[in-house]
Amino acid sequence: MTQPTLVLPPHAAASRAEFGIIGLSPPIQLLRQQIRRYAHSQHTVLIEGETGSGKELVATALHLARHDSDSFFPVNCAAIPPPLLEASLFGHTRNAFTGAHRDCRGLFEQADNGTLFLDEIAELPFELQAKLLRVLENGEFRRIGETALRHSHARILAASNRDLRHEAASGRFRSDLFHRLNILVIRVPPLRELGQDKVLLLDHFRHTLAAQNDLPTFELDPDALPYWEAYPFPGNTRELRGLVIRLLTAYPGKVVSVEQLQAELPHLRAPAEVAPNGPPEAHALMQNLDEAMTRHARQYIASALARTQGNISTAARLLGIPRSTLCSRMTALDIPRR
Q: What are the structural domains, with CATH classification, of the chain?
């Protein structure tokens, strides 16, 4: 029998949900720190992350953290057909094209003093990327069918689940637009990097969704918890939430066993650290923990250095630690200086 894993009650998880982002892991703490740092900047913020990791939640948090009443306008660049996307963003005049029966303001005008969130910006057609670059550079744009220049003061947030640096290098994304976007960057970590945050999210969603659907919540059998913790959730938080919905629908008010969890996740495997006849030895567990902490620390520092082109002072500010501390940790973790 494996040892049960602590599941916090919903009020405990909610108390840690600053900006609506639940988690206690170092990547989530760094994410919240970046949101606080960038919230009041008028510069464009690029949000990178895998599908389902919560990029729109981060964009909403960046907007709400400003504590103003200006509007938030999200648009999914992949969801609007290219011929309509230009009109949606920049607006059009009457008779500019078939079906244009009146003048229409685009999102850049509607979000003039607010925030415009361009989700899946890698899907923006190449010809529109030049127009977006012009807006980012000087705020200028034209409606379709109009020669007069207009101006927008909207703050732009952009997100992509693709590596825009790779997209630019391969010619699928304008390199000048990439460099204009790649100034303030937030990486939303995938769920597989968040450790026990997966349990906090389980606790949050099972209680929240049960209340919304007027159902008794389910419990996860203690034997099933290590499986939940070890599962990588390739679909990230979106996949986790969907799984909770399925379990809540199938097992309201019940205890979900390992077998029942495996039925919902056919590729679920036994966690490697759980021995078949009992829990791991304490010394092995501590060794695994030390290895995991070292691995994650090296990863976060390397990521910060990459984003700051090797500038240690800037990377230290990004990580929220003194420069001397960062230098010491780089030496301890054998991270070379550029």
A: 10-16+192-264 (1.10.8.60), 26-188 (3.40.50.300), 282-332 (1.10.10)
